[in-house]
Amino acid sequence: MTDLTRLTADEIARGLSAREFTSAEVTQANLDRIAAVDGDIHAFLHVDADGALATARDIDDRRGKGEQLSYLAGVPIAVKDVLATEGLPTTCGSKILEGWIPPYDATVTAKIKAAGLPILGKTNMDEFAMGSSTEHSAYGPTRNPWDRTRIPGGSGGGSAAAVAAFEAPLAVGTDTGGSIRQPGALTGTVGVKPTYGGISRYGLVAMASSLDQAGPVTRTVLDAALLHELIAGHDPMDSTSIPEPVPAVVAAARRADVKGLKIGIVTELGGDGFQPGVRARFDDAVELLTSAGAEVVEVSIPSLKYALGAYYLVMPSEASSNLAKFDAMRYGVRVPPAGVDDPSAEQVMSSSRDAGFGDEVKRRIILGTYALSSGYYDAYYGSAQKVRTILARDFAAAFADVDVLVSPTSPTTAYPLGEKLDDPLAMYLGDVATIPANLVGIPGLSLPVGLADEDDLPVGLQFLAPQKADDRLYNAAAALERLLEEKWGGTLLAKAPQLEEVR
Ligand code: GLN
Is 407 a catalytic residue? Predict the structure, then answer.
């Protein structure tokens, strides 16, 4: 019998409708896989076996009665622990929300439930999505299934590792500066940050509201497109949600044709500081695109050199304000100050926040509060917002000449656990290629394009497209994926020897 955990979401959907197996069987297979490997990988913070199986059985029942179901009905999914799930813990990887069970669903969660996808559980993440390695989770790090001594990327390392280790065929992540795409690159999975406003942020616990966006984490481009269409769409509960039809990303993924497509290599993203093996796989992939009829040119976006600096002002500024609500009064842990009888509310807030937040979160709250303080606001936050405007203008100019832009997703492959934990700046530099898309609201997709020669670890190539042109990403990425699979004789993950070890 086929190992059901190895199937793509599209294969599962087809198998379910052809009655080759049931959703309960697929869901159980994934739960068994989680039980077998997650002690090592630690992709999940919470597994909901009963809930997932109940949904699966309900879908099997309804299918049996001939009910019209959504295409992905019965395909199990994992959800990053930053999205509210009614009845299931939602901790954002933080001690301050330990034990919190939301009384409502995020719109993304509600759509997943309405479509009948069994939710396997909630995935590990850096605390409040702050980090690039998942080591800032208050519940311990996630390990990279390709090499368990290494990080899986972050902040959504849990979602990416769950998909890469065949614990779930699909996962949802969120991306504020690269947290879907960079873990995608480091684990050999497909990760998409849709256009800002394409997917509702209602119920997504905010880190930086003008940058956050939820999106798919999968093993194939088509799977990502199927999940994208399921969770996207206008939501009156999110004032920044785009009131327009969702781009036809599934059709684009099926088209997979780059003939005549104009592709721009971003000069500033790929030179100094990029690992040679990353650059080599990127160059090979670009050559494949050229051989398939794409026209490839170099494009310079000079203002990119200010993007990382601007991000690390805008993001902490917004985060410091968003995190003010964790005051131990309304929800979350309450830690009274030691040795104080009859403490004031302020003292309780202070001691609770001190105990509940980790170092990285505190660092960013302090940075953001400083950047927003009167006297410094114009110099820091104000300047960063100006950089955003210039960047948006420069990207618009670039897209006047090309259909999509490409760069390596991450400057390096997965590094050893602990290597950058005490050097926040070194860790921040890993986001250099992904954060520009968040600053200007454009969509980005990371596709695995091979293994670096020096360490045999996955490398990702990032496609970027103009706002609301998410379909272009899926078309180009699906075309490249097809060319790579022809070359490899299968998918990269299916061939990963390291994954056998964790069976
Ligand atoms: N790694 C980036 C940061 O630490 C991005 C995080 C994210 O996208 N949530 O801010």
Answer: no
Cβ–Cβ under 8 Å, residues 310 and 391: yes
**Rounded CA gap, 364 and 381, in Å?**
14
Question: In which domain, by residue range, is 146 found?
Answer: 4-303+389-501
Domain count, the chain: 1
Give the span between the Cα atoms of 437 and 209, in whole angstroms. 14
Does residue 213's CB lie within 6 angstroms of at least one atom of ligand 1? no
CATH code: domain of residue 177: 3.90.1300.10
Pocket test for ligand 1, best of 435, 446, 462 (most atoms within 8 A of CB): 435
> Does 503 score more than 50 pLDDT?
no
pLDDT value at residue 500: 62
Q: Look at residue 364 and tell me if it is in a domain.
A: no
**209 among known catalytic residues:** no
pLDDT of residue 316: 97
Residue pLDDT, tens place only, 80-90: 999 999 999 99
DSSP H helices, 256-344, are 276-291, 307-322
Q: Is 262 a catalytic residue?
A: no
What whole-number distance in Å separates Cα of residue 480 and Cα of residue 478?
5
Reading the block at residue 417, the tokens are: 């656990």
Task: Please state the atom number of ligand 1 nearest to the C-alpha of residue 179.
Answer: 8
Please pick, among 23, 94, 133, 155, the residue that the annotation labels catalytic: 155
246 assigned to some structural domain: yes
Task: Look at residue 23 in the predicted model and tell me its pLDDT.
Answer: 98
175 Cα nearest atom in ligand 1? 8
434 falls within a domain: yes
- Structure tokens that stand for 354 in this block: 């001190």
Peptide bond into 155 cis (omega under 30): yes
Across 236-255, average pLDDT: 98
Nearest atom within ligand 1 for CA of residue 364: 10
142 belongs to a structural domain: yes
